[in-house]
Design goal:
With 388 residues, the chain is α/β, with parallel strands linked by helices. The chain folds into 2 domains: 1-26 and 300-388, no CATH class; 27-299, Alpha-Beta Barrel (TIM Barrel). 41% of the residues lie in helices and 10% in strands. A 7-stranded parallel beta sheet has the order 6-5-4-3-2-1-9. Helix 2 (12-24) crosses helix 13 (319-335), helix 9 runs antiparallel to helix 10 (229-237) and helix 13 (319-335) packs antiparallel against helix 14. The longest helix has 17 residues, at 319-335.
Length: 388
Amino acid sequence: MHDQLSTYLQDPLLRRLWDDLQRAGPLRAILVDITHVCNLRCKGCYFFEDNMDRFESPKDEAVFDAWLEGEKARGTNFVTVVGGEPSLQLARLKKIHDNFWMTAVTNGIRRIPHEGFETMPIGLSVWGDHETDTYLRGGGKVRVFEKAMRNYRDDPRAIWYYTTTPDNAGEIESVVGQCVDNGNFVTFNFYGDISGLGGTYDHDRGFEQVRRNIDKMISRYPERILMSSHIAEVVSTGRLFDQRWGYDVCCSITPDNPINAERVGNGNPYNTHFRAYNPDLATTRRCCVGDERDCNNCYDVYAHISWIMMNLQRHLGSREDFSNWLTTMYMFYLGNRIVGFDEGVALLPEIHARAGHLRDRPLAGLAGGRAAGQLAGASLQHLVEDVL
């Protein structure tokens, strides 16, 4: 199988991506809720749906500093900062930025200043056009999307994390166009209706038309879209070869949390370093989105990307499968600025051309990918660990 991998890497683009990832080195990632406070109450926000604000963030700065030093000592080098609202904790955000690769996900109402955060990737939330976004996030009153656009106009740090809903696929062209015209990049999430709104927002309606419109945006703005068709397919269908998405395969669990003992022992891969910290910084949760979240309505993109990333051996059955794995890895590193950003963006059109579509492939082909992965077995696990 090493020979097979060497054959795939004779492709100049794949070799370039592979070498860039190797130079960047492994990621030892965590997620942290930097605060239990937010200036919005979005419909369908997992943080408040699961009452995670009950874990109040420490007032004593020494507690935060001790936590940060502990993570440095543990070898952490990448932090996803969520909350609550990270822009309400700029001093602590700066400390994380000064010590780790990181991304902060914000609602955009309060601008994170440029000074001191010059190279920090900022994930800007948007959940639809101005009407839909105002309903879901602004309580029908606050035009959140509009405020965030003003705050981050022509800001090279900003990537819109566009959470799409099944029946609002027709909004995608307009929203993406506005984000690109605003001088920013775009990636996608998929709305899980954990608030029980139903109707237009019911995830059980499926995301087929959403994916088709995402593909159109990739074709129109290949140098601005930081999600591949392959990633969108895996996230929105919950399918990776013969596996179905669920707790038993999710890789973004907290391994040393006792609640995950059975999952750790089931034989499926997981991120051995990962921890999802509650705002108190003293406790962790089962996975990145809570202790009891129904995985059937979890469309968390980072969790699904981790599922792809941790399954290299399943992607060795063909050049296309390996290309999908490698471009997923690279997109994650690129969006979080772990590899050279300007150089990587220049490669995006060709990367998109390589990241194929699972939905148009027969099931027999999917099963074949699994068989090839089984043949590779543990002998290739170190290749994943070398990159991850």
